[in-house]
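Support reply, case 0932

Customer input (verbatim):
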Amino acid sequence: MRICTIVPPHILEEVAARTDDPALRDIARRTAVLSTAQRTERRITPIKPCEPLEDFVPDRTIKDAENLEELPGEIVRAEGGAATGDGIADQAYDWLGVTFDFFEAAYRRNSIDGAGLSMISTVHYGKNYDNAFWNGEQMVYGDGDGTLFTAFTGPLDVTGHELTHGLTQHTANLDYYGQSGALNESMSDVFGALIKQYHLGHTADQADWIIGEGLLAPGVNGVGLRSMKEPGTAYDDPNLGKDPQPGHMNDYVETYRDNGGVHINSGIPNRAFYLAATELGGRAWERAGRIWYDTLTGGGLSETIEFAAFAAATVETASRLYGATAAETGAVRNAWNGVGVVL
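Our regenerated output:
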C-alpha cells in the first residue's frame, strides 16, 4: 500500500490551477510535492510484525514537527501525560483514543494491527501544509492554510480514515491502484465515518455521512471532502473545483491519474455502504460495519480485488453472520445493486 493523504491530488491540482492567490497556489504545490515524497518513503517502509498483547490499553505518543518538514518531531505528550495546552496536540491525542476505543468496543480489535500497536501522531508538520496522512507507521497532520483548509486535527473522521489505512495495511493490504485502491480508500471512509458516528452516538439516519466535515475553511463552498450519501456533492468551489466522485458504475471514471482514480471511484463503494447501513438502520457499526470489517480482516481478499468480487465477499460474509435469507444479507445485496455492481 502507498501512503494516502486525506486531501486527494486532484483537489491540490485544482487549487494550483484555479486560484488567483499566489500564496495559496504555492501552498498547494508544496503540499503536493511533500505528499509525493512521503508516498515514495511509504513504498519502502516494511510492515513490522508485533507480538499480540492481551491488555487492551492504548499507547499514544504525540510529537511536534514545529512546522518543519521533518519526521517524527519531538515528543510533547505520551500516554497518560497531562494536556500540553496546545489544542492541536491535545486534539490529536484525544482522537487516537477515540479510534482505539471504537475498534476495541465494536470489533474487539487491539489497536490498528490487532496486537496493541503503539499509536503515534506528529502535529504541526510543515508550514501551512494542507493535508494529513498515514505513512505506514504513524499519523501526520498539517495545520492547514487557514483560507481553504482548517487544522487537519479538527475532524475526527480524518484521524479515523488515516488510521484505517493502517488497519487495511495489516490485514487485506489492498493494492493502491484502480478498483482495489478505490476499495482501500473506501474502507478508510467507511470506518472514519463509523468512528465519528460511534463518538457522537449517531444512528445511520442521524449521521451526516460527510468525510472531513469542518475541514473546509469559512467561505469555501462545500461541506467536506466527500459525501458517502451523495458522492459528487461535497463541494463546488472556485478554488477547489467540483467534487468529481461518481456514485454509480455508470459514471465510473477511467483515468491514469491518482493511481487510477482511487479517491474518485471510491464514491461507488462508499455509497454502497451508505445504502446498506441506512436500509438496516440503527447503529451502522453494529451490522453493516461488522460485515465490512469481517470481510476486510477475514483473510480471504486478493490484494488486487475489484468491486464485483468484493461485493460478493460482503454478501458471503453477511450470509455467514446472519443467514442467507436474513435482512442483513438482502440489504448488502440491494446496496451493491443500487450502485450498479450487479450480483
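We compared this against your earlier run and they match. Two observations from our side: Residues 39-50 have pLDDT under 50 and may be disordered. Residues 2 and 312 are 25 Å apart (CA to CA). Please reopen the case if you see a mismatch on your end.
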